[in-house]
Amino acid sequence: MLESLSKGHCENITSRDVIVQEIKEKLEEKNYLLILDDVWNEERREWEDLRHCLLGISNTNGSRVLVTTRIQNVASVMGVLPQHVHCLKQLTDEDCWSVIKHRVFGNSRIPSELKELETIGRENAKKCKGLPLVASVIGGILCNNHKVDDWREVWGLIEEANGVLPVLQLSFSRLPKPALKQCFVFCSIFPKDFVMEKEMLIQLWMAHGFLQPSSERHMEMEDIGDKYFNDLLSYSLFQDAETDSYGSVITCKMHDLIHDLAQSVSESQTLILGNGGHGNITANIRHLNHISDKGLTAAEIGDAMQKLHTLFSKTDVFHNMPANFKKVRVLSLCGAKIDKLPALLRKLKHLRYLDVSDTRITELPRFITKLYQLQTLRFMNCFLIERPLKGIGNLVNLRHIYFNDEKHMPAGVGTLTCLQTLQLFVVGQQQGRGIEELGGLSQLRGELEITNLKMVRNREEAMRAKLLERTAIQELALKFDQKPDWHSVLTGFGREDSEERRKHDEDVLEGLQPHPNLKSLRISNYCGEKCPSWMLKDPGNLGESTYLKNLVSLGLFFFPQLKSIPSLSLSNLVQLTLCGLEELDSVPPLLLSNGAKVQIRRCKSLRSIADSYLEELMIYECSELVSIEFGPLAMMYLKKIMIELCNKLESLSMFSGMGESSSTSTCLKEFSKSCSDSSESVSSLHGFSSLQKIDIWNCGQLKSIGESLSKSACLKKLSIRGCHSLELLPSLVGLSSLQKINIISCQKLKSIGESLSTSTCLKRLFVSSCQSLELIPSLVGLSSLQTIDISTSGKLKSIGESLSTNKCLKELDINSCDSLELFPSLDGLSSLQRIVVSFCGKLKGIGTSLSSSTCLKELFISCCDSLESVPSVDGLSSLHFLGIDHCSGLVSIPSLDGLSSLRNLNIQNCDKLTSLPGGLSSCTALKVLSIENCHDLISIQEDSKDLCSLVKLEITRCGKLRNILGVGEILGFPLTRLKVLHFGGFSVEQEELEEYPTQLEELGLVGWEKLRRLPHQIQRLTALRKLRIEDFDGLEALPEWLGSLSSLRSLVISNCKSLKHMEAIRCLSNLNSLEIFESPELRERCAIRRGSEWNNISHIPNICMPSGQIIELTPVFEVEYNDAQESQLTKWKRPFFCCKG
């Protein structure tokens, strides 16, 4: 979802909470439709996790999830009501014919002379059995074939087929070449729904010899692979193709039924080993994908070992294996938990494809250069490798090499005359590292980044790279320095050295002229004063045509001395980025593609931007900019403008061509501006009648915002942020389309307009960090209002006059309003779904009853020390979550009777609470019960036999609690579904528990007087994946039996001050994470490589301890620049290790 909203990859975001928050922010309270197509998952727990995430994104009505599946049980597992299940009918024969016809003829009509084909085609459509996939496959078979005899032959074959799979098999049998069939069958090695990268897939086919060039004409194997890929796509055997910014397909998937077809015709030569078990590894297996997290033994592989051609594995599959893998052609250890490559790889003489990316290996052994058949070598994100591979020139057949760390740049690549992929080249002074190495690589294609160009001596040497002859390179990045220190560059060497550097860079860049086929060009850290001649016009043409006419993207980053850029006329250019051009005075007229986006950042001398036809213009930190000279015609194209920290650009009158006559003609929809510190007003906004979004922020001296907002009848969103001097908002009367108001960090703002009554479309009011705000205007009549969110407004004493008329109100969040004493009446709010009140120290009550809020799903109250009572929730059958935290004055909680949908009850840090609320037994849907730090809580006595749905139970640090029953019936009921138990920290009178539910997956224990050592019963918890132990002062050594918990993945140790010995951990081979807190002696004994316990824990991938002595062997990477645009283009450089805590 996040990647779809961001329109890009998000590999570096792994936390589920962060992902949920990012999606929530991007949706901006909008409703969404999520489509999950062709679902097979029947795991109830995973559906619950997804549901929890979706509720975190938005718990309001309006959003929808549409799931398609061929399995009836999926709907049952999801808990879908019968009336919401729609059993789709099969397509009609006419519909199937439409699919076939479109695949064959596109949108064209069938020629009159081919009408007989329609008759045959309609008969074929009847055999599709109403399935669109079958219709699409049949259309793929007949595509580009208009011969009647061939259509009749296909009709006859379909007549003989019985069932869906035989019809699909027909498409396989009709593939024109045996090699194409081999390519298709090989794809069964990937799991269902796997995203196949086109580039990687072609290299795998090539490694198996499926792409042999035809004797009739010479074609590179990669070109044959590209054709085969497109053929399989056209035959509908591949689907869900994704393209890059140039329109080329880069990934695809196989439909599950097509995957079944590939497996059925593979003749049992392909096997995927999953976590569910190893299955049968027969002697016929040639291609093995080991995706299980368990290792393999020689006995399990058996005779297949000597015949394997392909091996994918995420584990150290070669551990304790004999060297019998001699026929392996493809080996992928991508993401495997290994720190070195096994020596037996040297015997893989037939190896053509090797991938060790995303591993923790520390070196590439020299024997790799003896694998003379190797065609593809990948070691991306191997940041623990310190030295480059030596002797790479021996790999005479190498065609593709992938790495993204500059210190991995091998010497002597110029001898690899077959090389097509080299994404990074680092120029050096040593032999074999000069830029002339590129001159011999005539086959290079795709993407190329050349860094450290300061090492190139002159233009003549630069020309030896022969970039002008590289017709297949699409993306080129040229970087002169790694991390330039411009102060040193411009002043540290003196005027003479600076002049020499200028001439050097201009000379070298002139010699790096690329081929005009180039689609993307990025130049960084260039000290010249002018652009190279090849960026101006076609050097061989005296006319006006531009040389780089195929460019789609152009980026110029950190040019400290460039004074001007050419007036670009690039009809295909969609993205232009200018960043750090410190001497650039003006941007000339630009003739770019329709829908072009221009971003200008940190151009400190820029004063003007000439008239240009753009769709988006973003300007950041251009302190001297005074004018944007867009005329009326240019404004017809501009849809979005963002201005940030442009000190002298004070008002929208900057658009010199804007006048009264054009006030209704502009298409501008989004305006965002960050004013300078000296600007006290944002003057007229008139002339932008189509504006839908205004964002004014970080204007520290801004005192007023004109009075023309009322004319913005189309305005939907108004955001004012960081305007600390702003005291008054202009009148909002007349903003009938306004849907969202965000006011943040306006410290002197005392009120929000006089009235919002005319903003009848207003859905969201968000106010935060407005410390002087005393009054929220009347909210009466705002019939569309759905969300009120007010926080950190210290002087606010009341909120509106009444909320009872806001029948659509769904969310009410009040946070950190220290002076708030009175809460508005909540009577009549029948749509209210969420109430959150926190850090309101003077608030004594939140109404008396919520009886009319029958849709309420979440009620959370925290840090309200004066709160004396909680409103009655009796009978709220929709309530899912009830949380009360840090309410020190609260003595009791009202009855929970009738809360039949309550799933999470969380009571924490309520010091005066002596007992749980009544009615707990009626909460039959309760899954999470958490009671923590309630020091006066004495007993849990309620008869709760109906609470059989509990999945998570936490009862900790209740110092007076003393009468808990034996485990298995902790609250007087069986806990057959309990997966997570956190327990302990009780009265000295409480005895140790006798038993623990055997199905537990997570256990947290807090020691107390009667529990000073780990209970031996834990060894029976064979499903346990996470164990946390706290406050066990008497524990000196982990018990030996702990090593038998083979399922354990995570161990957390906190405040165990006597713990010294960890021998038991050595046996926990699957342990992935160890965290140690507040145990200083143990931390010292576990110190990396020098601690006495280090050998017992060194096999664990992620080890976390405070005070900096931590190893987290999953590296976090830094990029070269923080700039958003550049960081997307800059390769990862080097790892640093994260210190948690």
Automatic annotation (TrEMBL):
Residues 9-107 form the NB-ARC domain. Keywords: Leucine-rich repeat, Plant defense, Repeat. It comes from the Eukaryota. Residues 189-262 form the Disease resistance protein winged helix domain. Residues 435-579, 1018-1076 form the R13L1/DRL21-like LRR repeat region domain. The keyword Repeat applies. The keyword Zinc does not apply. GO terms for biological process: defense response. One of its GO terms (molecular function) is ADP binding. This is NB-ARC domain-containing protein. It comes from Rubroshorea leprosula.
